[in-house]
Each structure stands twice: as C-alpha cells, then as structure tokens.
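Session log. Operator J.P. requested a structure for one protein chain; no other inputs attached. Running the standard single-chain path with token output.
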Amino acid sequence: MTTTKEATELLQDLVSFDTTSYKSNLELIEYIKSYLTNCGIGSTLVHDDSGKKANLYATIGRDDVGGIMLSGHTDVVPVSSQRWDTDPFCLTELGGNLYGRGSADMKGFIALALSRVPKILSLELDTPFHLAFSYDEEVGCIGVQRLLDLLENRAIKPRCCIVGEPTSMEVVVGHKGKCSRRVHVHGHACHSGQAPFGVNAVDYAAELIVFIRKLAKEKANNGPFDYEYEVPYTSLHTGTVSGGTALNIVPNYCEFDYEIRHLYEEDPQKLLDKIESYARDYLQVDMRSHYKDTGFDFKDIATYPGLSIDPNSTFVNQVKQLLSNKTHRKVIFGTEGGLFNQRLGIPTLVCGPGSIDQAHKANEYISLEQLQMGGHFLDKLIESQIEG
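Structure written below.
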C-alpha cells in the first residue's frame, strides 16, 4: 500500500528543482522520466524551441484504449522579493505542513500521481492511466500547447482528465478564460516647455486605460452574470504601465499590459475589438493629425479558454462519489483544463490537494492532511477501475 511517506519523499525531490517559469525544467523532467523508466514505463518528451524545457507524457498500462489522464504543470512562480522563513527549494515539515515553492501549486499532486504508478502497474487494469506534465503554465498555459499538438494527432486519446491544481480536494467544474495583451503607444518627443507641440504617449495610454476601466464597469453593472463565481462577471484590468524618460521630456513611448478574465460563455474578442477600435479609430486619428508616425500596436501575451463541464455528467458524479462529496464549485484561477476540453474534446475537471490560498506566496505549503486526502482519492480512483 502506498503511503504518504513515499509521496513526501518524491515531493522533496521535486521541490528541490528550481523550475521557476523563466528557467529550464529539464532536470525535473529527466528525474520523472528516470523514475518512470525504473518502473518500466516509457515517456514521450515534447520540447520547446530552445530545447531547455519539455512536457512529459506517459501511459501506464494498455496503449490501445483511452484512459484517465492526470495532468499537472512543473513550473512555479518566482520567489524573488518574497520573504521566506525556510529555504523555498528545500521541503521543510513544520507543524503538519510541508513548506516549499510548488508544494501546493502543484508538485504535491505530481508527487502523488508518481507515487501511485507501482500500484497501477500491480493491478494490471483494463483502463490505462496517462500522465501529462507541462511547462510554462504559470505564464499563460503556453507549454501545454505543444503537448496538445502531440495528442491531437494520436488515434487514441485519454477519455477524461483530472487537472490536479490545488482545490482542497473539492471538485471544480468551471473557471474563466483569460486574454492578456501588451499595448505599445508611440508618441512624439519634445521639450516639456513645448508640450503642445509633441504627442504625449503616456497621456494617450492613460486615455485607453480609462476606456478599459469603463468597459470593466459596464461588465460589472450589466453582466452577463454567473453567480457560482466569486466575481460573477467578466472582468478587465490594467496591471503594468511603463513610459517616459524624464519629466522635462514629452514621452514618445509608453506600454502597458491589460487582461480580460471572461466567463466561459462570453466571447472576449468583442471586448478586444472594442478596445482596439477605440485606440485606432479615435485616439490614433487624433495623434496622427499631428505626426503620422505615432499610434498604437497590440501584442498578445497569453490566451487560454475557460473550462466548463456539466456538474451532472457521469465523470463528475463518479469523482464526487469517490470523494464522498456531492458539491462542486467554480474558481477564479485558470488552468490547462479548458485547453484539454476545447481542443481535444476530453471531459476535464479540476481537483487536487492543497489550497490556492497558499499558492504564489512566501512560505507556500501543503498540509500533510491534504496530501493524505489526495492520496486516498487516487487510491480509490485506481481501485474503481479494477472492473472498468
């Protein structure tokens, strides 16, 4: 019988790899590949263009039928500018909690999945289990796209998927989609004493930011609404702004990033078009009445779809039954689940150990209790396939 100790030992190793999104994850991926090889399981790696990052996909059991996919991302958010009481890349147990970057989000789930590989093999199930571990999820679900390309061309695909993001082992049936863009504003510089003769890039950026804020208020007032969410409507916000060189120079450049977190049912393209149309058809026209080389450029940063699965579907009900919990919810954070569902048509839900309240913060942790609950769930999930 698999114990929490085995999962904890694996988690200790996984946390020791600094897989912050801007760094390589290959050492961790090679560790997982080696672990699976020692269990007699082959792995497929899908690299990025640089060759410094990779997704891993493996099937445990039969390869002629679709099975249950356990999905997780290997990258973590930075620890810079955070004040930790322990070494973030050394798993530390204190008061029933395991502290370390990625312990909750979401190496805890990966450790649990790996620890159950020997059990899956020993039962010789008719239903296979698939492991899908990605890179660059934290910067917009970028890396998993290449894994999807691989699976899309396979005749046999997983029949369902559990994304093990930290949900405190509650079943999540939905989350919003996200679109983020970077806006470059090109003005015309001059001495600030001649400000009316220039084109102030910061001013025009500010006008567009205010327009985005107005759209956000319209969504808050008019919806549409889904009250299963903490924020029950599509939201917009500007996150970063940078521009200008000195106070006595009219700035010729400014850039800012904004995002839309939209309800599953709502098409974000309409909002994107409104923002771009206001910039090009109103603000840019005014800018170019002074200088023709001024204006706006837009660049996509990251986009991923929302997730929605019928809470009364057979798959969701089976998972609820295994958890002895009839409830479900929707969450504010995004996952790769919407991509598995929309691109590959794989029924997907989110359920994993740990709390999102601990993620992305200093002193991130997962409790031993949550790790035990996650392991118990996976054991029951595996055993439920004996006659499957």
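Operator note: The longest strand covers residues 177-186.
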